[in-house]
Automatic annotation (TrEMBL):
<dbReference type="Pfam" id="PF13460">
    <property type="entry name" value="NAD_binding_10"/>
</dbReference>
<dbReference type="InterPro" id="IPR036291">
    <property type="entry name" value="NAD(P)-bd_dom_sf"/>
</dbReference>
<feature type="domain" description="NAD(P)-binding">
    <location>
        <begin position="8"/>
        <end position="181"/>
    </location>
</feature>
<protein>
    <submittedName>
        <fullName>NAD-dependent dehydratase</fullName>
    </submittedName>
</protein>
<dbReference type="InterPro" id="IPR016040">
    <property type="entry name" value="NAD(P)-bd_dom"/>
</dbReference>
Amino acid sequence: MTNVLILGANGSIARVAIELFLKESDAQLTLYLRNSRRLKNIASNRVRVIEGDVLEIETLKEAMMGQDVVYANLAGNLEQMAKTIVEAMNATGVKRLIWISSMGIYDEVPGQRYSSILDSYRNSAEIIEVSDLDFTILRPGWFTNKDEIDYETTQKGEPFKGHDVSRKSVADLIVKLAEAPGLEIRKSLGVNKPE
Ligand SMILES: NC(=O)c1ccc[n+]([C@@H]2O[C@H](COP(=O)([O-])OP(=O)(O)OC[C@H]3O[C@@H](n4cnc5c(N)ncnc54)[C@H](OP(=O)(O)O)[C@@H]3O)[C@@H](O)[C@H]2O)c1
C-alpha cells in the first residue's frame, strides 16, 4: 500500500488522478490544497485532506511525514514551489516526486519555438533535475477531456510527438509511476496521444 501526497489536489489532472487512484490502486491519498471546500464527491476512507499553501514549508513538511510519493500538480510560481518542495522532501526524507510540467520546456516540440511563457516550467524542472530526488517530470501535450487512455512517451533529448493528450491518460501514467517504485526514475517524459 503506497502513501501518496497530492499537492494541488483540486487541479484538473489531479481530480482525474484521484478517481483513478481510488479505482485502480489501494493507495492511501493525502490531498493537499488551499481550499478544501472546492473538493467535491470524494468519500473514501483512503483519503485525508490537508488545507495548506505549497509555499508554507512547515505545513508541507508535516504533510510529507510518512509519505512514499509526492505528486505535484501545480500552476503559478512554479520555481518557488519547486524549491520549497525539494527542501521539504529533503528535510523529511521522502525521495519520490512526480512533477507535472508542460511540453516545450526544452524547445523539443518540432515546428514550435520556445516561448518565455514556459520560463517558470523550464526553471522549476531544472531545480528538480539538479536535486537528489527520485523524480519523474511529465511534459504533457494539450489536455483533452476525452474518455480514453491512449498515450506514448518520449524521453528528454527526443523530439516531442503529437500535440494533445487526454487528462485520463496523464492520470493513468501518474498512477502507474506512483505504484511502481523503480519506473522512470530521474527521467523527464513527454506525454502525447499517438498520431
Ligand atoms: N491545459 C493544458 O493543456 C496543459 C498542458 C500541459 C501542461 N499543463 C500544465 O500542467 C499543470 C497541471 O494542470 P492542471 O490543469 O491540473 O492545473 P490546474 O487545474 O490549473 O491546477 C493547478 C492547481 O495548483 C494549485 N495551486 C496553485 N498555487 C498553489 C499554492 N501556492 N499552494 C497550493 N496549491 C496551489 C491550484 O489550487 P487552487 O485551487 O487553490 O487555485 C490548482 O488547483 C499546470 O501547470 C498546467 O499549466 C497544462
